[in-house]
């Protein structure tokens, strides 16, 4: 069957989750240590590291499911990004709240900055996809059509040549 999930595909998905998880968790721990050193704090709680672990694990699963899946790739980047946001951001928000990063729900400035960053990055992605990638797509399509026309011309010239020699030689 065409849509059947193979054991090789599942193995590759687990490998991708593992690799993304290892990279993202290490990066988050390093960033946490840098922030702790800059703020003068000398401790990181175990619950904070556990929440970072959960955040990295969920993000890795979401990223693998959305961006490394042929089914979603056919729908386009903006669809994938939107699906990723829908799956990841609610969990990220809950974990940030549990870690105390955003403070209490009453701390409107922290939550506003968080929301602004999410929306800003989404708008930047829309802009890049709409203006830069589509322009490149049109250029590549033009070049491909030009190449295909040249192939057709070459074949046409081969068929009109005499005794196996082309008219160009």
How would you describe the overall organization of this protein?
There is one protein chain. This protein has 169 residues and is mainly α. Helices cover 80% and strands 0% of the residues. The termini are far apart. The model has no long low-confidence stretch (mean pLDDT 83).
Q: Work out the number of β strands.
A: 0
Q: What's the total helix number?
A: 5
What count of structural domains? 1
Structural class assignment: mainly alpha
Termini separation: 51 Å
Summary of the model, kept short:
This protein is an all-alpha fold and 169 residues long. The chain has one domain.
SSE map:
Elements: H1 7-39, H2 46-67, H3 70-73, H4 77-99, H5 108-160
Features:
0% strand, 169 residues, single chain, mainly alpha
